[in-house]
Amino acid sequence: MSSRTALAEPRGVRWLLIALTLGFLAVFLLLPLIVVFAQAFEHGLATFLRAFADPDTRASIKLTLLTAAVAVPLNSVFGIAAAWAVAKFEFRGKTFLVTLIDLPFSVSPVISGLVFVLLFGAQGYFGPWLASHNIRLLFAVPGMTLATMFVTFPFVARALIPLMQEQGTQEEEAAISLGASGLQTFFRVTLPNVKWGVLYGVLLCNARAMGEFGAVSVVSGHIRGETNTMPLLVEILYNEYQFVASFAIASLLAMLALVTLIAKTVLERHLDEGKPSHDH
Amino acid sequence: MTIEVRNLFKKFGAFAALDGVDLRVADGELLALLGPSGSGKTTLLRIIAGLDWPDSGELLFDDEDALLRNASERHVGFVFQHYALFRHMSVFENVAFGLRVQPRAIRKDETAIRARVKELLDLVQLDWLSNRYPSQLSGGQRQRIALARALAIEPRILLLDEPFGALDAKVRKELRQWLRSLHQEINVTSIFVTHDQEEALEVANRIVVMDKGRIEQIGTPAEVYDSPASAFVHSFIGESIELPVQVGDGGVQLGGERLDIAHDGVRPGASRLFVRRHDMQVGPAGAGALQGEITHVRSLGSAQRAEVVLSHGKTVIEIDAPRDRELRPGEIIGLNPRRYRIFAAPE
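The joint structure predicted for all components is written out below.
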């Protein structure tokens, strides 16, 4: 017998499990992906490309990029700050703060969107004040960016907290005892130590920011060429029976997902290197 | 630089890490803080470095209040037990760190920094590793790089937290001697924390023995070993025979029988008698303060170790005797403590 271990299952069971997993993946992940691309290219490359010539499509791509470009950097800064506070300092209410950071994950995105309507809508708490100062948040780009930020807030913090906690504070203490200021310590020691973690968080944050539907849909108002992001436009076009255009945009989002997956795999390899070695 | 600690207190929650500590460290001294874990030695070291702050008390460097300065302003080199090397920097950059973060006005130029780092790497004899990363080094190499890094800022004080605690026995022994000679070379006031008595006895000029947040004894290695100031020090440093005795009008009693030794000025009551294993003198049966039967003999090379069941109270002890007199299992012998200490038992 070659590779029998304590955990060795009878061969039949092993094959059955692998077959089940592969079958599941094929039906629920691979098949839809193929369908998206098949539908997008159903009437040839020319029709596929024509979808992107449409000004509404272009506006939606621009808006998607814009919201991500605002939400992702801001959330990275917030995420790093939150992770730093949680991992490197002791204070009361720390557990509560960590739970709070996770809130956007546990709340349905639609409700997140509704909260913004409640706060900033015409009948909302700040609505009249905003209206009187001529500030438009809802059904406009700022509101959509806010909603996106809320939904994607936890990604960077979540990626960094365990990493920073595992690394501890000794290197920071060493830096300070060598005469470094707080800022020098942060930029020369803390940040470089978690750079792969930051990239990992940013990557997931970006994927979600571009793909978010629920929260953005509620605050968007669906004004064509103005407040439609790519996911929203996919739905609108689909409902209008413009299948090729709809799936063309969907294929772009699917591509984003694939690129994200590959980048994630690469980053995870680097992340393992950043963990403290336990060989002392 | 001298260090003076006055009446230092520090609590972590309900746990008193430092419970009124006073200490003076002379310029150029190599001092060991020795004690079991939880004795407060690391806390004291971290407070001196500025990595922790006391609840009350004073800390003076050359008669200046050091508590007014934070860690980055104290010019104290700190070597961590687990090295704390910057994992994303090469060995060279690790050592250069302290020089690169200096304020622009006093920062050295690149050529001077390179020269200084090379000098330090030569000092720790690891010049050939300068392009490696910490993860590629052995434990002993990491610790020497950590030391070079701490020395780069020309510290006024060098603090080492269990510097050899994470290394294997052979490397530890080499590094001890190396640290001693390095200290002679650079002669900066140094304090190192250890729970290993052998390390403290071998390396330090003076030893501070700590227990439960208090200093039990301060003295040279010889003083601490030969004249322990308390029962704790006696049992913590060196191997001791410890016997429960009763001090009273009739002298010293063990298991109800009177021992032929002086009571050493200890007040009457339950006490403990401490004798070093090699301070038990073996004589013929009937002679000496204690009687016993040898049950087991083992060679220790230059000496022999015998297990003896005492006739007083049937206690089993181990003694070390020179090999000029052969001991045999079953032999009845008399034992006389050449040197001993009696301490009142803790209430």
